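// run 5 | inverse folding | seed 20
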């Protein structure tokens, strides 16, 4: 069974076995294109600048951040592109969503993964 995975882009690529998609709006500071081992960068699915700055990676704000980000995604045509890309690549192998945040639990990639799994029936 092919899997949808999450990985922090700054960790030494633990898993190059899959289609690697960066889902942050901003390029990760200090990361070279070569070190990233990306297949695709879908920056449009990241939270808006306003939402990202408001959240400020504060775990206490995560429930509100999640609700607002899901509302943004519902109105964002880039999410449909991501969903189709993930569905297409899961037929042949794993898909790895990459993010830059230090917190592995409270970030937009976690929300994206949950939404994709629900939408794709994973």
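// decoded
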């Amino acid at each position: 069974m092919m899997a949808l995975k999450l990985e922090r882009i700054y960790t030494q690529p633990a898993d190059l076995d899959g289609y690697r998609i960066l889902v942050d709006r901003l390029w990760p500071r200090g990361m070279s294109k070569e070190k990233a081992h990306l297949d695709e960068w879908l920056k449009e699915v990241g939270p808006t600048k306003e939402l990202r700055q408001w959240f400020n990676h504060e775990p206490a704000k995560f429930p509100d951040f999640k609700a607002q980000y899901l509302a943004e995604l519902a109105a964002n045509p880039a999410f449909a592109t991501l969903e189709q890309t993930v569905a297409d690549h899961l037929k042949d192998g794993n898909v790895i969503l990459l993010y830059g945040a230090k917190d592995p639990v409270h970030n937009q990639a976690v929300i994206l993964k949950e939404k994709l799994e629900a939408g794709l029936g994973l």
